[in-house]
Amino acid sequence: MKFKFKVQPYQTSAVDSVVDCFAGQVNTSQTTYTIDPGKAPIPLEFTGFKNADLLLTESQLKENIHEVQQRQNLPLSEALISSAKCRVNLDIEMETGTGKTYCYIKTIFELNKLYGWSKFIIVVPSIAIREGVYKSLEITADHFTENFGKKVRFFIYNSKQLHQIESFSSDASINVMIINIQAFNATGKDNRRIYDELDDFQSRRPIDVISSNRPILILDEPQKMGGAKTLDAVAKFKPLLILRYSATHRINHNKVHRLDALDAYNQKLVKKIAVRGITVKDLAGTNGYLYLESIEISRSAPLARIEMEVRQANGIKRVVKRLEKGRDLFVESGELDQYRGFIISE
Q1: 171 and 148 in contact (C-beta within 8 Å)?
Q2: Regarding beta strands 303-312 and 174-180, do their DSSP bridges make them parallel or antiparallel, or are they unpaired?
Q3: How far does CA 34 lie from the centroid of its chain?
Q4: Residue 86, Cβ density class (10 Å: 0-12 exposed, 13-18 middle, ≥19 buried)
Q5: Complete domains list, the chain, with CATH
Q6: What integer best gives the mean pLDDT of the chain?
Q7: How are the residues of the chain apportioned to helix, strand and coil, as percentages rounded to the nearest 5?
Q8: Pick from 8, 113, 25, 14: which is nearest to 64 by CA?
Q9: What is the predicted pLDDT for the residue at 142?
Q10: Tens of pLDDT along 151-188?
Q11: Which residues pair with 176 in a beta bridge?
């Protein structure tokens, strides 16, 4: 049975939110290098195809990211958040059941089409999710071939089938490796093979051959992948970019897209949502929120207890402040534009 996939505007928006962050990047496909032959009996030189370097400056990237965030009504990132020794880390928040896997597969095609990047690694937290991603790549293959005129070569990393890594490096088309976190972040003998010099791999380390491609890493459900140890392991892939897809990001980087539970419900993408508690988060700092809680009268000058949005190190938060006459709300807010020109007066 052949599946039919409909192009959904909300999924297109998620894809555009990522690819537009790199507007201005030169399309440089088929950037070549010589693959390390290792200690082969007869050393041969093979050409590899890696992702071209990201040529945009930090200011260009920030400008692109700000444009994406503004149209999403997201807080503007003050800086690029580096993680796992990678300077570009984008968060894409998508509610479960809205086609997250489809979106990042389509993003792979768009990044290849616009910028020429062709080496991708999808990192997942479990074997079950790994198999699901592989199945998604299978059933969407014809759909994306019809839309982009290309096919993806994809495989599941297996420490006993290292010839697939050779093909990953030497093939000029779009290549996707799917790997579960345990395959490079656990202490078992098989799991450590990726870091070992292997006789059956010409005394090379698989991680060195993989990282030479400067792959783009896609982390599916990163909140389930652990902490510092995982970041250290991810850094060994020498990623060009890291894209994190989740409905519940625990650690925030540069968020460029948000489709939360309420958005999904309002767009009729999910049938219902359950509310266990209410928390205000991810304030955009663009709506001019201001609430006069009370006025304190005493022998000295009266004070206004005002709840307002304030820029803090970890984002924009709503804070109650006690302010007297003459205080500048623009200054008190950490210079949020919506409070510019507002002064406490009698």
Answers
A1: no
A2: unpaired
A3: 29
A4: buried
A5: 9-266 (3.40.50.300), 290-339 (no CATH)
A6: 88
A7: 35, 25, 40
A8: 25
A9: 95
A10: 999 999 999 999 999 999 999 999 999 999 999 987 77
A11: 120, 154
Residue with tokens 């007869």: 42
- Residue 310 near residue 330, CB atoms below 8 Å: no
Neighbours of 155 (CB within 10 A): 17
Q: Nearest 5 degrees, angle CA 116-CA 118-CA 120?
A: 135
Cα–Cα dist 179/111, whole Å: 20
Query: 10 Å Cβ neighbour count for 261?
Result: 19
pTM for the model: 0.79
The tens digit of pLDDT for each residue in 302-336 reads 888 888 888 888 778 888 998 888 899 989 988 88
Can you give the length of the chain in residues?
A: 346
Looking up tokens 């290849």, which residue turns up? 112
Distances in whole angstroms, Cα of residue 91 to Cα of each of 7, 184, 233, 241: 22, 22, 19, 11
Rg of the chain taking only CA atoms, in angstroms: 24
Residue 173: predicted pLDDT: 96
Whose CA is closest to 108, among 42, 76, 154, 66? 154
Residues ≥6 apart with Cβ < 8 Å to 111? 18, 19, 22, 117, 216
Written as six digits, the tokens of 303 are 């004070």
* pLDDT tens by residue, 256-305: 999 866 666 666 665 565 555 545 555 555 556 788 888 887 677 888 88
Q: Return the pLDDT at 278.
A: 45
